[in-house]
Amino acid sequence: MATVILVRHGRTTANATGLLAGRALGVSLDAIGRDQAALTGERLARVPLVGVVSSPLERCRQTAQFILDRQSGAPDTPLDPDLTECDYGQWQGRLLSDLATEDLWPVVQSQPSAVVFPGGESMAAMQARSVAAIRRHDAAFEAEHGAGAVWAAVSHGDIIKSILADALGMHLDLFQRINVGPASVSIVRYGPSRPSVYATNTDAGDLSWLSGDIPSGDAPVGGGAGHKTS
Fold it and tell me: What b/e sequence results for 198-213 when a residue is b if at least 16 CB atoms lie within 10 Å of its CB, and e otherwise?
């Protein structure tokens, strides 16, 4: 299968003030977030992407543009509402410090599969739609460009954490063990028998090896020789 690079948007004005932005409009990258996104664009400049799929929200579209600005080709650039932020309902727009006093907060931390945000979405539904979207795009890019295709999906922290949990074979109740920082890069390859997770939550390092052949099939016993950088 193709390889997907999962990119979280850079830091926003809401992130900096501890606000749960959710799906609110007009939440954009702050100065630090723009620098973070520019660095991610620089990291991916040596990887010829066949597509950059983004959540429709502004902060993701801005981050995606930093990536596209450094690409020499012309990747497909669809927006996918199935990669948008979780619908936090009545929690949207509130301070995280206030939300931490809610009865639902410890359930979000320890049993997210049971969480339905008041007036919003369940975390299980969030995971189901985002994983389905990633797998759908991955299959389409491979069908069009071949098994060596590499593409990027720009989305949100909880969305990417839920996708990684699925790829790792983890129950959603364990996904809070995964960290996904602003403008971080995580890498998944959906092989014929199972997904392989090549990286999580990276914000530095050479990614040029993604432009070469990525082995698929059985995992090497002992860990193998690793990838080659150019």
Answer: bebbeeeeebebbeee
pLDDT tens across 67-91, in order? 999 999 899 999 999 999 999 999 9
Answer for the pair 63, 154: CB distance below 8 angstroms, yes or no.
Answer: yes
Distance (Å, rounded) from C-alpha 186 to C-alpha 203? Answer: 9
Q: Which token pair is 29?
A: 């990258």
Please give the structure tokens belonging to residue 27: 């939440």
The single-letter DSSP state of residue 12 is B
- Look up residue 202 and give its two tokens: 């990276």
Distance between CA atoms of residues 134 and 6, nearest Å: 9
- How many CA atoms within 13 Å lie on the side-chain side of 155? 31
Q: Quick check: helix, strand or coil at residue 223?
A: coil
Q: Which amino acid is at 141?
A: F
Q: What is the pLDDT of residues 183-206, one digit of tens each?
A: 999 999 998 889 999 999 999 999
Return d(Cα 169, Cα 30) in angstroms, integer. Answer: 34
Instruction: Specify the pTM.
Output: 0.94
Share the mean pLDDT of the chain. Answer: 94
